[in-house]
């Protein structure tokens, strides 16, 4: 069995080759093999609503978050400016006014 990538549109595992193109039989999406190999190198970080995040974006916290090692919490609606994307479990590195340097998970923020 070949190791073809899943469909980037619907994540179906039933993709097949048709000449130089890859095709998804479930949603009908077609893309080139070169585009598939370029996307694998690049990690895409998305917020809670599915919007793609980039370095320098401004986000808002969507849930009260307890700060580990502290008695304080980050309140819902706290705006975080100039985020930086990093590898790891907590994929956002930022500085929050009143708290200092923090690492956040992208699932707890939304893009402004």
TrEMBL record:
Taxonomic superkingdom: Bacteria
Family, as annotated: Belongs to the YjdM family.
Membrane-spanning ranges: none
Listed name of the protein: Protein YjdM
InterPro entries with a match to the protein in the record: YjdM, YjdM_C, YjdM_N
Domain Protein YjdM C-terminal: 45-112
A Pfam family it matches: YjdM
Protein YjdM N-terminal domain mapped to chain residues: 4-32
